[in-house]
Design a protein that fits this description.
Distance between the termini of chain A: 41 Å
Number of helices of chain B: 0
CATH class of chain B: Mainly Beta
Shape of chain B: globular
Oligomer: heterodimer
Low-confidence stretches of chain A: none
Shape of chain A: globular
CATH architecture of chain B: Sandwich
CATH superfamily of chain B: Immunoglobulins
Order of helices and strands of chain A: EEEEEEEEEEEE
Order of helices and strands of chain B: EEEEEEEEEEE
Helix content of chain A: under 10%
CATH superfamily of chain A: Immunoglobulins
Number of helices of chain A: 0
Strand content of chain A: over 45%
Chain lengths: ~120, ~110
């Protein structure tokens, strides 16, 4: 079974600065998807960014980018020019491409990000 | 926009009650999921469904059952609520096709069992 580990329960960053959230995962599969979700105080889970494992290029969405290291099974999220609205719980998630476990997401325990003005 | 709607944001129930949590999605998604979210534990999958009347156990199905009679609706049932089922419950849906399409989540139901 796959596992996802977020080793930082809490992080803080100054507004306009850059912060990196860590995620590692364990899998024997060669093809899979990785996601970062954001959960603000409103509780609505929102997709931040996704990465297909077969793509070597790191995904980027505006101020959000990932550092995907497949051999190291690492998938960190970098937030540039942090804004107050980035304050939230961030979850890293894994999904298989094939088989029955294709259906479900496996989540890490989350990292609570605080943005200081 | 995809919309996943959970019937209640907050619920308070008594120990031993039968509890129904309802979830409706409006995008004709084949897959629907129920997760439980607890501090320090992240999200854990309770049950999922990949088609009408089809269901699969997730990682923590004990004490729960589900029902999917219509494609758009997925219900989580606590047969006899207990205090250790006090938690946040999140419903999600996703298309059945392959690919990296993300899951879409409802706003969660915070259930307190007293």
């Amino acid at each position: 079974a796959q596992t996802v580990t977020q080793s930082q329960p809490e992080m803080s960053v100054q507004e306009a600065e850059t912060v990196t959230l860590s995620c590692t995962y364990d899998t024997s599969e060669s093809d899979y998807y990785l996601f970062w979700y954001k959960q603000p105080p409103s509780r609505q889970m929102i997709l931040v960014i996704r990465q297909e494992a077969y793509k070597q290029q790191n995904a980027t969405e505006n101020r959000f980018s990932v550092n995907f290291q497949k051999a190291a099974k690492s998938f960190s999220l970098k937030i540039s020019d942090s804004q107050l609205g980035d304050a939230a719980m961030y979850f890293c998630a894994y999904r298989s491409v094939w088989g029955g476990s294709n259906y479900k997401l496996t989540f890490g325990k989350g990292t609570l990000l605080t943005v200081n003005p | 926009d995809v919309k996943v709607t959970q019937s209640s944001r907050y619920l308070v129930k008594r120990t031993g009650e039968k509890v129904f949590l309802e979830c409706v999605q409006d995008m004709d998604h084949e897959n629907m999921f129920w997760y439980r979210q607890d501090p320090g534990l992240g999200l854990r999958l309770i049950y999922f469904s990949y088609d009408v009347k089809m269901k699969e156990k997730g990682d923590i199905p004990e004490g729960y059952s589900v029902s999917r009679e219509k494609k758009e609706r997925f219900s989580l049932i606590l047969e006899s609520a207990s205090t250790n089922q006090t938690s946040m419950y999140l419903c999600a849906s996703r298309p059945g096709s392959q690919g990296s399409t993300e899951a879409f989540f409802g706003q969660g139901t915070r259930l307190t069992v007293v």
